[in-house]
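Running this now, will post back.
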Amino acid sequence: MADDLIHDQNAGIERLLEIMRRLRDPDTGCPWDIEQDFDSIAPYTIEEAYEVADAIQRRDWSELEGELGDLLLQSVYHTAMGEEAGHFTFQSVVRNISDKMVARHPHVFGSESRDKSAEQQTADWEAIKAAERADKAQRGTLDGVAIGLPALLRALKLQKRAARVGFDWPSTDQVIDKITEEARELVEARDTLSQTEIEEEFGDLLFVMANLGRHLGLDPEAALRAANAKFTRRFEAVEARLKSLGKTPSESDLAEMDALWDAVKAEERA
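Update: finished.
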């Protein structure tokens, strides 16, 4: 019966759950899958989430379908391990998120009016989440901001939380002044302090840069991804121009590559 389920392409999520159970079977499963635990699988989960975002950014809908499947597999993997350890099951995870969505949308599933702005809905959402944190004894303003988040995203979330209780600069001018101050401290640290202290000052500068993005209504992570893509595009164009000259980057020098970079940038802006 289990084999029939595994080979039934129309069996949906139950097929995937059974495949994972078979992979993790201590007697007949895959040795690699059997050895995995929450800690070893977590990096793959993060990687798959980024690959989903990458497919969306590239508008590759066929690839997105596959990447979403890979990400779903990560949830199935973690729930299988959770079930084995007696922590939770796939069904309890589904029930938990379903209950949460219903509770957080009283204007859709309850008696509250849907006639409210997006800003009011966001405020209501945050109030509901605050109440949930209180129920979990997360009393501090910053409680519940996951430590395992990418550092730039966690910085943004920490700053948003602090801003809700009034710990924030009122204007971008003050944030920019702080960036100038932190940049100056980094230069001083570079010249006089230890590597550890230099790293600390560099972190302070990155943190304030994330805050500036928030004040400007920008997503720092998205802005950096775009900058990465722009750098990649322009450097590849420089490489292509060098190739047409019979050269590789290692056979060129900074002055030549910088001139080619400026030419590529000028063409993009023309």
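The chain has 13 helices and no strands. More later if anyone needs it.
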